[in-house]
Amino acid sequence: MTSPYTPGFQFSDWPDGPLNANLPPAPLSPNAVLNQVEAEFGSIATAFTKTSQVGMVVVTSISNGATIPVPTGFTLAETRFFAFVKAYAHNSATSRVWFSVFATASGVVNATVISGSGDGLNATGVAIARKGGW
């Protein structure tokens, strides 16, 4: 069976060893890279909708305390949730950058700044479900 998903970019090793994404030529701003990653998740979600066995939801901007929805046609028990940093604004008056970003088993996003007042944080949330569970 042919996969309905074709990756928009792929990972490879640099000659000196570290893993990197083969994205279009530099310079890319952090927002441009993030937009490409979010677009890739969108492509994966579209491919998943072509099968009734897997579902995916991508919330490109979600705040602390908000809930990532369960993909349509799936249950909470069949779903896994993920969150990662979308944007972080650092108050230069503080010396450390420290934050916590994750999604609970029920899809609630924790996106909190621990390092100091004046910093701001926003996340991207992803829900992936499989019929019958994982």
Structural summary, described in words:
The protein is an alpha+beta fold and 134 residues long. The protein is built from one helix and seven strands. A three-stranded antiparallel sheet has the order 3-7-4, covered by helices on one side. A two-stranded antiparallel ribbon has the order 1-2. A two-stranded antiparallel ribbon has the order 5-6. Strand 5 (99-103) and strand 6 (109-113) form a beta hairpin. The two termini are 22 Å apart.
Q: What is the CA-based Rg, rounded?
A: 17 Å
Strand numbers in spatial order across the main sheet: 3-7-4
Q: What is the helix fraction of residues, given as a range?
A: 10-25%
What is the percentage of strand-forming residues? 35-45%
> What is the arithmetic mean of pLDDT?
74
Shape: flat
Number of strands: 7
Number of alpha- plus pi-helical segments: 1
Largest sheet: 3 strands, antiparallel
The low-pLDDT segments are 11-20
Structural class: alpha+beta
Order of SSEs: EEHEEEEE
Span of the ends, CA to CA: 22 Å
Reconstruct the topology from this structure:
Elements: E1 11-13, E2 19-21, H1 30-48, E3 54-62, E4 79-89, E5 99-103, E6 109-113, E7 120-130
Antiparallel strand pairs: 1-2, 3-7, 4-7, 5-6
